[in-house]
């Protein structure tokens, strides 16, 4: 019988300090996520220096808790995995250094993981991933359409030309006076509103690329103009109208990519995959077009280390290890890494 592979995974690319122990790439033995959201709320967004400091304070405790919850000692592990990019460089370095120290101290191989691969593989924690597939990654830092023919084989077929969709959510939320992070707030408020503002659907071209900065500016200008005319804005209607525009654009391009590429499996990943309207629209459209749709449960949509462990298992099988010179990188293309 094959040995069961247990990997300690660490994720600190943005504002969650997370560690997890994963067995054979899909069994979550522990999943500890220490969120810093409360701390960043008062600034209306993630402050990189504050994030790094919190990671430093929390990382040792979070790793210890992950081991304790999994009921394991370091001796029983087979490898250590860590997100080394993309993300906030100071934040990444905390995880990377903790992982290197742990690997060195316990003589374990070190596995370098790309954050976006983690978001896609979050699905592997709950369902077996089937290939070929298209994955739509929608988060605070990314908006990408990625085609996969096999494990660790990533082809970026579309991406945002400017803002990430989560970033646009957070910005629009801020201008209508909602707290950070704005995505879930807009999602909630939009249920009480109507699509009365009819915001533009950007970049209706032949590519699979996206653009959200124009929409964001359009919302801000509209609010500004209404204010000058002393017209009271309806926040719920703004939220709903913005969300409808985002969902229209994301679903239209993704469904077209599936059709053009003749692919029948769709994975949605990243923090914005938690969005209720996006989920509902994709559920309807995929059913109608006989596409199998996979979306992780909410706890695996936002940043966590279990998803990093899921990718790391595939890398472990290939012997894709890093040495102790591994460094954090704020920007790295997924296609260059695997
Ligand atoms: O994947 P994630 O946790 O971090 C990054 O890697 O960026 O994504 C965070 C983003 C934030 O912009 C947040 O506002 C957004 O995901 N988000 C949502 C929802 N829940 C989280 N956006 C829209 N609707 C939601 N329900
Ligand atoms: Zn993320």
UniProtKB/TrEMBL annotation:
Q: Which PANTHER family match?
A: TRNA N6-ADENOSINE THREONYLCARBAMOYLTRANSFERASE, TRNA N6-ADENOSINE THREONYLCARBAMOYLTRANSFERASE, MITOCHONDRIAL
Q: Which cofactor does it need?
A: Fe(2+)
Report the source organism.
Nosocomiicoccus ampullae
**Highest taxon, organism lineage:** Bacteria
Q: Name one GO molecular function term.
A: tRNA N(6)-L-threonylcarbamoyladenine synthase activity
Q: Which residues bind Fe cation per the record?
A: 115, 119, 303
Report the sequence similarity comment from the record.
Belongs to the KAE1 / TsaD family.
Q: Which residues form the Gcp-like domain?
A: 27-309
Instruction: Provide the alphabetized UniProt keywords.
Output: Acyltransferase, Cytoplasm, Iron, Metal-binding, Transferase, tRNA processing
- By what name is this protein known? tRNA N6-adenosine threonylcarbamoyltransferase
Q: Where does substrate bind?
A: 137-141, 170, 183, 187, 275
Cellular localization per UniProt: Cytoplasm
Give the EC number: 2.3.1.234
GO BP terms: namely:
tRNA threonylcarbamoyladenosine modification
Q: What is the lineage of its organism?
A: Bacteria, Bacillati, Bacillota, Bacilli, Bacillales
- Pfam families referenced in this protein's UniProt entry, alphabetically: TsaD
Reactions the enzyme catalyzes: L-threonylcarbamoyladenylate + adenosine(37) in tRNA = N(6)-L-threonylcarbamoyladenosine(37) in tRNA + AMP + H(+)
One GO cellular-component annotation of the UniProt record comes to: cytoplasm
Renumbered to this chain, the signal peptide range is none
Annotated function: Required for the formation of a threonylcarbamoyl group on adenosine at position 37 (t(6)A37) in tRNAs that read codons beginning with adenine. Is involved in the transfer of the threonylcarbamoyl moiety of threonylcarbamoyl-AMP (TC-AMP) to the N6 group of A37, together with TsaE and TsaB. TsaD likely plays a direct catalytic role in this reaction.
Could you tell me what the cofactor note in this record states? Binds 1 Fe(2+) ion per subunit.
Matching entries from PROSITE patterns are given as: GLYCOPROTEASE
